[in-house]
From TrEMBL:
It comes from Ammoniphilus resinae. Belongs to the MscS (TC 1.A.23) family. It is a multi-pass membrane protein. Gene3D superfamilies: 1.10.287.1260, 2.30.30.60, 3.30.70.100. This is Small conductance mechanosensitive channel.
Amino acid sequence: MENQLTESAHWFESIYMGIYEQVTNTDLWMTVGQAIFKIIFIIIIARILVNLVSNSVNRIFRKREKLQLNERRVETMRSLVNNVTSYVIYFVAILLILAQFGFNLGPVLASAGVVGLAVGFGAQNLVRDVITGFFIIFEDQFAVGDYIQTGQFFGEVKEIGLRITKIKGYTGEIFIIPNGSITEVTNFSIQNSLAVLDVRVAYEEDVDQVIEILNQSLKDAPTIIEDIIATPEVVGVQDLGPSEVLIRVTAECKPMAHFAANRKLRSLVKKIFEEKGIEIPYPRLVTMPQKDMKNFL
């Protein structure tokens, strides 16, 4: 029994001495401290490089007139370049940090192709997102700042990456959509839009005279409403309602400006009607006393 206790004591003592030697090993702590310092230094340098590259890219793409690219294309390319360079810098930083932990980067880089192939089979959705994102940018399907609709999502494109696209809705929400799920896109920002305004006038008005007044009065609309780029066109009588004649007016506007232009154009038409004395129909209620009603019947 005493021999077993003695052996256990020697065992614990050897373990304690081994731990004590490691803890008090100055060279070990110097090596650990240097590794921690290098890791922190690598992280700081990576952050600085990302900021420097981002600022440089932004400065270059601001001079889009020298690049002979339009604004929407410039914003898309700027966002993509910043995205890709960030991935590359952080990937290199991770490899350098792994080297501080004693990993041999040669075999890691040599096996990257095999690992990438395995990841490709295991992450097909990710690969599909990246490939779709590449073709969206390459084919210029839409760009940053465009108003698009894909599926049930509608809004302004805020960011295009190789994997995801961010769309801001009218009420401020941000839709983050994987590129692989974007199969159909309606882009409202490529071509000019059309504001369509239906004007109602009373049956008592002379329709031809109303159309002539609108044609003459709306000639200055492009100077009054900046979103309108051409003189509005009075198409003519669109419909005959129960108590009004419907006259349609169309105006070519800047892309996605037809909503605001329509509101301003409606206000302008109301002022024209008030100045010219043209009556806008509205519901009327005629009341008759009961005794007069009996005589009427």
